[in-house]
Amino acid sequence: MASLGAAVIHVAVTPAHWNDWLPSGVFFASIAAFQLLWALLAWWRANTLLLVVGVAANLGSAALWVMSRTAGAPFGPYAGEPEAVEAAGICVLLLQCYVVMGAAWALYRRCRADEVPAVGRSLVLLGATTIMAGAVAVGLASGLQGHDHHHGADAEAGAVHGPTPDTPVGGHHQEEPAAPVAVRAVPPAAPAASPAPEADGHQHDHHD
């Protein structure tokens, strides 16, 4: 059930990866087909070889996802650039881990002679179905919104921020108002002294 859910999410996100980079789309289509076929074969007859292949393939896919979100994919146009963590990827990772645990538990049970009671098998199946349904619902809701390939610093550089005080708005430059200038009061000048009278006793006014 978990392998079937992972296959459904991989199918949903394949077109976005296909348009982004053709080899990436082929990879996602291939892993979806493998998980779907593996789920059908495991439901019909889960032999030891099939369980081992399921564990190895899902471990490899989960490891590749973790690498692409931490150190970046080892190849492709975005090699070395960490990808964004999305809900669809987390759900697929959860389902693949569930496949690994379930297949490993089945391998372990093959080494024991006693059988699991019918009630125990029913509870395990109910739990697997519940987890698969929830993970697929969240993964499809995230995957159908499209795949975003903004990485690390590129995503931060392309983010849109609100206008700052220094940013022109509407194509016009906004000048900051000049700081008020302090005006110092100047005391009135003292009245000029009257000119001294001339020797002849008359007072003359001189004009420029």
From TrEMBL:
Transmembrane spans: 21-41, 48-67, 87-108, 120-141
Keyword annotations for this protein?
A: Membrane, Transmembrane, Transmembrane helix
Read off the lineage from the record. Bacteria, Bacillati, Actinomycetota, Actinomycetes, Mycobacteriales
Claim: Transmembrane helix is one of the keywords in the record: yes
Q: Which organism is it from?
A: Mycolicibacterium rufum
Does Transmembrane helix count among this protein's keywords? yes
Regions of biased composition (Low complexity) lie at 177-198
Q: What is this protein called?
A: Uncharacterized protein
Q: Where is this region: Disordered?
A: 146-208
Which ranges are annotated Basic and acidic residues under compositional bias? Answer: 199-208
